[in-house]
Amino acid sequence: MSEAEKLRTTEVDLGGLVGVLATHLYSTPLVALRELVQNAHDSHTRRRLEDPDTPYRPLIRVSGDPAARTVAIEDTGAGLTEPEIHAYLATVGTGYTRMLRDLTGDQDLIGAFGLGFLSAFSVADEVTVTTASHREPHLAHRYRSRGGERYGVEPVAPRPGPGTVVELTLKPEHAHLADEEALREVLRRYCVLLPIPVYVGTDEQPVNDVPVPWRQDLPGSPHLHRMRFANAFARSFEPLTAFPVTPAEDRTDAVGLLWVQDGGTYGSTDNRDLAVYLRGMLLADDARDLLPSWAGFIGGVIESSRLTPTASREDLQRDEHYRALQRALADAVVDGLYETARLHPNAWRRILTRHGQDLLGAALCDDRLFTLLADDVPVPTSQGDLTAGALRAAGSGAVHVALGSGGGFEEMLYRAMQVPIARGDRYAVLPFLRRYAQLRDCRIVELGSESGNRELFREPAAPLPAEERGWLAAALADEGEELVPARFDPPGLPLVLVPDREAELKARIEDDQADARIPSAALRLARAFTARTDGTVKARLYLNLASPAVEDLLTAYRAGRTGAATAAGLLRSLKVIMAAASGSSAGDLGAALGGVSTAVAALTADLSQDLGDHS
User: Fold this and answer.
1) What whole-number distance in Å separates Cα of residue 226 and Cα of residue 293?
2) InterPro entries attached here (predicted)?
3) Distance, CA of 486 to CA of 469 (rounded, Å)
């Protein structure tokens, strides 16, 4: 090694390092409470390991004094000797807890990085630690520091016994943390799984006095205890049912509880809500990515000792244990839904009613869910929510679905046929019904698609002569509409106007504002798809040659009767009025209403003339 390459010691600006770690490592000042309570918990675990034969009452008490702007965290744990104060409180990155866990293998110890104590300086101007070790209970010392860069240690009068009190003199912007009601709310969530009781102020009831159903055998119904815990823990929505997470030794040690929330729909809101605890202490309050992306209606709480936290202990490293837990939780959701359907039919009906739209999409993501939901999940239709089986039965063995959003003539056709039509524009409806039709080997009629229209609107046995077809097109169709002679049910419906969905899409993506609304990649794909249509045909007007009204109209035209044009005008007005009633646009409604009056007057005059001729 040359002289220029000699190794040198890295210089460290301790003040800057402490400031960065204390202020920027954690996302919220509330983490300071978590870290200090965690340290108190580990102090108890240390005392149990090092002095197992001496009985004592383990507890943690957090007190706030808004007037003095202070918060104190007291424990009856192992405490610290003076050398340990210097070694562990005043040395960044050194933690006795980690060393003890490595030595004993005890998984109840939470700390990992030796950084948690620094969080105190993110909320406090001054930190004071008064402590007495269980090894030297007659000696007590006080550590005091402002900012964490410099500190002092002095002997003080002995405490009532071993343990530690950490007192924070809060910065003005964090003075609200001294409110004991706020402390109860925060600690109730942070500490709910800690085995050591945590008290606030002079309370006689610990904030974590909640029976944990997966940790203990409780008398009575396990499901009832799960629901009680879920109702106590859930933040935003009432749980509809709850089911356990159990260890899968080949993949994960996680245990806990998941529940179905009475929340919003996944199509508009992702309400996944999962809290993760590491050795009993809240690690991640929003670990939704551990849940399947389709499970927007699931909440829960789990604990694990295999997960690896980040340095801030506010998130999880995406390692093999994380991915194994993702798979295990997906299985737990599916198994829980199966259990609910089998054992709790009332809750299952509520879930289907509340989350039908979510479950349609979920069924497409997991074969097991599709098997469970295929015949139970409700599908939105023109006649309300129906199962796919009910749709199939009402459609004489076929499932009918509209691709458009407004209903319009298509829906009118189905109403006339008294067949419910599924809302194919709703979230996951169309792909779910396509898969259902494949599974049950039944037909699916997609109104608005070329194949669906061919099935509904059958070609006539013989084509209309070009002259008749031209006259009908001129009399009935508006600009952008193509007249298509056909035969369809019911005969009482003389014509149906069906929008061309590709033309609608083309118009939307060629709008001047499309570039601003639609991502460029999606826009290119959509324009490639619609390039095959020129967009001139915006709708097809299917004329029902099986309709008596149309038969009479053609008979009158072929006979050269003057009333044929009047009757055709009446049908055209009927088309415009029906389109307006369904929210579509097919001509001038005012002119159509006037056309009805004109046609009625003309027909009345013709009738009077006929009566006069006969007299």
Assistant:
1) 24
2) HATPase_C_sf, Hsp90_fam, Hsp90_N, Ribosomal_Su5_D2-typ_SF
3) 12
